[in-house]
Specification:
By secondary structure, the chain is mainly alpha-helical. Helix content is 47%, strand content 0%. The protein has a domain of 92 residues.
Length: 205
């Protein structure tokens, strides 16, 4: 089964149906009649049935196809439930799926767990994962916006005001301002000339 064409089904139509909140057209659930009250559970069940637990690997979320993102979310959901139960991770609120930053953080942790618990030449590799868990928990407490939510209420984050976004984007167009600090300096703090290394000019070290 491939993500491009899961199970040989009409992937495009099924993805459109899922994104619209309905079961895939080719799924038996679409023709069974009746609609369960728990929409979240229904959609999750459909995803598990439709894409299974195939490993989508490592990918860029902003560039990924819907099928790839959904396959990853199925794995993240299973991993997160295990994480909460095993480590009593109270930093993860029930609304974690509504926070893109939290999803990305947990996905990255799941990828690390997968990489350090599969066949490896380093028998101590799992320690890398367990050392990362406290760091991830700390970020979940303060850096994802989920800290303002509670066990029973999801708080919608306040977006940036439009003029602030426009001002930041305008600075990208001023190439001299935007890139000056990224260039290799021509002089040092004492005013002496600084020869740029070869790699700064496209060469090698």
């Amino acid at each position: 089964m491939s993500l491009a064409d899961p199970g040989g089904r009409d992937a495009a139509a099924d993805i459109d149906a899922l994104l619209g909140g309905a079961p895939p057209l080719s799924s038996p659930a679409a023709h069974a009649g009746g609609k369960p009250e728990d929409v979240v559970a229904r959609r999750l069940a459909v995803l598990v049935d439709f894409w299974g637990h195939e490993d989508p690997g490592v990918f860029a979320w902003q560039d990924a196809k819907p099928a790839t993102r959904h396959a990853a979310l199925v794995r993240v959901q299973r991993f997160t439930e295990w994480l909460i139960a095993t480590f009593d991770v109270r930093e993860i609120k029930p609304c974690w799926v509504l926070h893109p930053a939290v999803v990305a953080e947990l996905w990255a942790l799941e990828r690390l767990h997968h990489a350090t618990h599969t066949v490896t030449t380093d028998p101590s590799a799992p320690v890398v994962f367990y050392n990362q868990v406290p760091t991830t928990r700390a970020r979940l407490r303060t850096d994802t916006g989920m800290d303002s939510c509670t066990a029973t209420e999801h708080t919608v984050q306040v977006r940036e005001v439009a003029d602030r976004v426009q001002a930041r984007r305008a600075s990208y167009d001023t190439s001299e301002r935007w890139t000056a600090s990224w260039a290799w300096p021509q002089v040092d703090d004492a005013g002496e000339a600084v020869p740029a290394p070869a790699h700064a000019n496209g060469g090698t070290r």
